[in-house]
Amino acid sequence: MAVADRQRQHSEKKMFSLCPFWQSANLSSSSSTQNLNHTQNGNSSNRNAMVNNSSKSSSSARTVSSVARSLLPARRRLRLDPSNKLYFPYEPGKQVRSAIRLKNTSRSHVAFKFQTTAPKSCFMRPPGGILAPGESLIATVFKFVEHPENNEKVIDQKSKVKFKIMSLKVKPGLEYVPEMFDEQKDQVTVERILRVVFLDAEHPSPALEKLKRQLAEAEAAVETRKKPPPDTGPRVVGEGLVIDEWKERREKYLARQKVEAVVDST
C-alpha cells in the first residue's frame, strides 16, 4: 500500500508539472483581484480629489466674486441736487439752513437716512423716509454756525462737519423706521458723503439763489403736508337735495330701537 501511494503522489506531481496553467491561472486571478482593488481605490481617490478640487474652486470663485463686488462702485439709488455739497449761508451765531433734493432713480421703493458727524449742532427734516420709484423730495438741513476764533470771515471754506446719506431697497407699503438700516446692514448703500460749504449771505451768487429757491420749495411742501385732508362733506344729489350718511344711520338706529321697545312691551 505504501508503494502504491508513493507512486500515485509521484504521478500527480508529474501531471501538475506538465500542466502549469493551473498555477498560472491561480496567480493571474490573485493578481487581477489585487489590480482591481488598486484600480477601485485609485478611482475613489481620484473622485475625492476631484470633489475637493471642485469645492476649492467653488470657494475660490465665491471669494473672487465677493472681492470683485467690493471693488465695483455701488449702484446709486438716489440722485442728489446738489450732488456732493451742502451750502449754508455764513451767519455766525445763528442757525442757518441748507436744502438738498433727493430723487429715487431706481425701480423699487427706497428708504433713505441722514447721518452727521455733529448731531448736537445739526439736524435734518425729514431725517429719513421712503421714496417710491421716481418720487422726489427736498430735505432741509439745519446747522448752528459758531463764531470764528479770530473773528475772521469764513467763506467758501470746507467745514469739518460732514453729512452721510444712505439708501436701502425696501418692499412697497413698508413703514419707515430708522432701525431697518441696522437690521439690514449688508444691503445698505452709502450714496454720498456731503461736505459743508459756506456762502456769503451778503453777496448774491448762483449757488445762494438756488439755495433760496430750494428752501422756498421745501417750506411749501411742509405747509402742504400740514394742511388737513380736504373735507368732501355731504354728497349733493340734484339741486338742494343733501344726503347725510350719519343722519340716515341715526334715523335707522332710532327706528330699530322703537321696534324693539314695542316687541318687549308685548
From TrEMBL:
Domain MSP span(s) in chain numbering: 77-199
Q: Which portions of the chain have biased composition (kind: Basic and acidic residues)? A: 219-229
Question: Residue ranges under compositional bias (Polar residues)?
Answer: 42-53
* Record GO cellular component, one term: endoplasmic reticulum membrane
PROSITE patterns, per this entry?
Answer: MSP
Give the GO terms filed under biological process for this record. Answer: endoplasmic reticulum membrane organization; endoplasmic reticulum-plasma membrane tethering
Q: Low complexity compositional bias: what residue ranges?
A: 30-41, 54-68
* Residues covered by region (Disordered): 30-68, 219-238
Domain of life of the source: Eukaryota
> What are the record keywords, sorted?
Phosphoprotein
UniProt-listed InterPro entries = Ig-like_fold (IPR013783), MSP_dom (IPR000535), PapD-like_sf (IPR008962), VAP (IPR016763)
Record keyword Disulfide bond present: no
Q: Which family does it belong to?
A: Belongs to the VAMP-associated protein (VAP) (TC 9.B.17) family.
What function does this protein fulfil?
A: May play a role in vesicle trafficking.
Protein's UniProt name: MSP domain-containing protein
Question: What organism is listed for this UniProt entry?
Answer: Jatropha curcas
Q: What is the lineage of its organism?
A: Eukaryota, Viridiplantae, Streptophyta, Embryophyta, Tracheophyta
